[in-house]
Amino acid sequence: MNKFTSRKFILSILSVISGMAGMIVSENELLNLAVNVILIVIPTIVYTITEGKLDKEAIINTIDRIKAEVDENM
């Protein structure tokens, strides 16, 4: 649940919403399409990569703690 209230997630969602809203209200369709696709795609990619790295670090830390506990108990 904490991930859904994180600033990164909220900003990514707001970027997607603003990009989609911009696609609805457009005058220069080609330029507007390009800008709004960037507003939608880049935050999503950055968020996914960042969360993946954080999850990877959390998993590595958990594995290290489990190994340390196993070593202590053996």
Explain what this protein looks like in three dimensions.
The chain has 74 residues and is mainly α. It has one domain. 85% of the residues lie in helices and 0% in strands. It is built from two helices and no strands. The longest helix is centred in the C-terminal third of the chain and has 45 residues, at 29-73. It is rod-shaped. The two termini are 36 Å apart. 8% of the residues are buried.
Task: Provide a quick synopsis of the model.
The chain has helices spanning 7-24, 29-73.
Number of domains: 1
Biggest pleated sheet: none
**Count of beta strands:** 0
Mean pLDDT: 81
Radius of gyration: 20 Å
Helical/strand content category = mainly alpha
Q: What percent of residues are in strands?
A: under 5%
Helix and strand element order: HH
Shape: rod-shaped
Number of helices: 2
What is the first-to-last residue Cα distance?
A: 36 Å
Q: Give unreliable regions as ranges.
A: none
- Name the helicity range: over 70%
List the helices and strands and how they pair.
Blueprint: H1 7-24, H2 29-73
Helix pairs in contact: 1-2
Give a quick set of tags describing it.
74 residues, mainly alpha, 2 helices, 0% strand
